Amino acid sequence: MVGEKNTAEVCPLKLRPFDPASDFGPLKSWICGERVHALWCAGRTKYPLEMDDLIRLLEDHKEKYGDLPFTALDGEDKPVGFFCLAPDQNSGTAMLRFVVIDPARRGKGLGREMISLAAERAFETGAEAVQLMVFAENTAARKCYLAAGFEEDVLTEKAFKFREEEWGRLRMVKKKT
Fold it and tell me: Does the 14-175 domain belong in CATH 3.40.630.30?
C-alpha cells in the first residue's frame, strides 16, 4: 500500500466493487506523483494514470489472475481506498494488489481497516492465506500491513528500478486463524 501514517482514529469502512465511472477520479487523485505511481503499480501503467490504461490493466489482471477490484467507502459512502483481490481456489491463497488510501485520509487507521476487510473477504472465499507484495522502501505501507496482521516473508533485493533507485520487493502473508 502506498504510505500509511499513524494515529488511533478508525472509521468504519465498507467495500464494494470498483466503479470506474464514479471511482476513477478519486483514485487518480490519490496517485499524486510519479514515485507514488511507481510504488502503487510498479510501472504497469504509464504516469499519469488515465482511465483507459487502468481499465486495460484491470482487465488484463482479471483475465490472468482473477483480480477483482474494490473501492473502500467511509461512513458517508465516499471513496477512501482501492485494491484488487485475486482468490486462487487451487492454491488456497489470495493476492492483494494495487493497494492505495486517499492521502488526505491517512493516519486514521483506514489502511489497516481496509486491508483487514480485504483479508476477511479472501478468507470467506476459502483462502487459507492472503499475500501481497510491497516495496521494502515503502515503510509506511509495511507498518500498515504489519498492523493488519501480515508477516514479512520473502525479500527480493533490487527487484525494481525507479530512476536511480533500486527497490527491494517484499512478500507479506497473513494466514487464516
Answer: yes
